[in-house]
Amino acid sequence: MAHRRYVRKPPRPGRRAYPKRPRRRRSFGLSLAMVVAGGFVGTLGALNMTPGGREAAAGIPLLREGAAAPDTLSARFGLCHSGGGRNCVVDGDTFWFEGQKYRVADIDTPETHPARCAEEAELGEAATGRLLRWLNAGAFTLESVDRDTDRYDRKLRIVTRGGDSVGDMLVGEGLARRWEGRRRPWC
User: Fold this and answer.
1) 75 C-beta neighbours (distance < 10 Å), count
2) Does a cis peptide bond (omega within 30 degrees of 0) precede residue 61?
3) Where is pLDDT greater, at 88 or 13?
4) What is the mean pLDDT of the chain?
5) Maximum distance among all alpha carbons in the chain?
6) 54-63, 99-108, 174-183: which range is least confident on average?
7) How many CB atoms lie within 10 A of CB 100?
8) CA distances from 58 to 24, 53, 141 (A)
9) What pLDDT is stored for residue 157 in this prediction?
């Protein structure tokens, strides 16, 4: 028995050759999920774009200038030996806390790596040790300043305990100088 081959008839005038498929509509649930996800992503972006965004997202309290609150942050700090860290001191004005790098905003301390002369190296080591002891002495607070980060993506904060700045203490002990908007040589 011979197999009959199906031959499609040509469409009538004014009709399509192939029938139009019905449009698929997105379900309401999918649309709602997309809106909620967009809002969530936008909120996360806003938290990271505002001063203290990561601190706020991580539950680290952040104070505005002139605000007084109890010191609630603390950790056991060591020295950073290379690269980043979790809770360690890099030098007299830079440290890592909870995986974020901070710079003490109100001071400038001598460099330790590399120091430009023996006097700078000695003073830088003393400032580093003093900041390490101060951070390990008890709870502290991170206070925001007019800029959130510096050009090295370090969070700029004034670090206080009981309302007293660690920067003031280091300047008073001769281990730092007030930040003047740029570095000056220590040699």
Assistant:
1) 16
2) no
3) 88
4) 78
5) 108
6) 54-63
7) 18
8) 42, 9, 15
9) 95
Task: State the CB neighbour count (10 A cutoff) for residue 37.
Answer: 10
134 HSE (CA, 13 A, CB side): 27
Global confidence as pTM: 0.62
Nearest CA to 101 out of 57, 144, 150, 161 is that of: 150
Q: Which residues have C-beta within 8 Å of that of residue 118, sequence separation ≥ 6? A: none
Label the pairing between strands 100-104 and 155-161. Answer: parallel
Q: Alpha carbon 36 to chain centroid distance? A: 25
Q: Could you write out the DSSP letters of every residue in 23-75? A: PPPPPHHHHHHHHHHHHHHHHHHHHHHSTTHHHHHTT---BPTT------B--
pLDDT tens by residue, 142-180: 999 999 999 989 999 999 999 999 999 999 999 989 987
Q: How far apart are CA 165 and CA 143, in angstroms?
A: 10
Q: What is the pLDDT of residue 186?
A: 81
Phi, psi for 55 (deg, rounded to 5):
-65, -45
According to the model, what pLDDT value does residue 112 have?
Answer: 84
Fold of domain 71-178: OB fold (Dihydrolipoamide Acetyltransferase, E2P) (2.40.50)
Of the candidate ranges 65-69, 70-74, 87-91, 167-171, the one whose mean pLDDT is the lowest: 65-69
Taking the domains of the chain in order of start, what are their residue ranges? 71-178
Angle CA 94–175–134, to nearest 5: 60
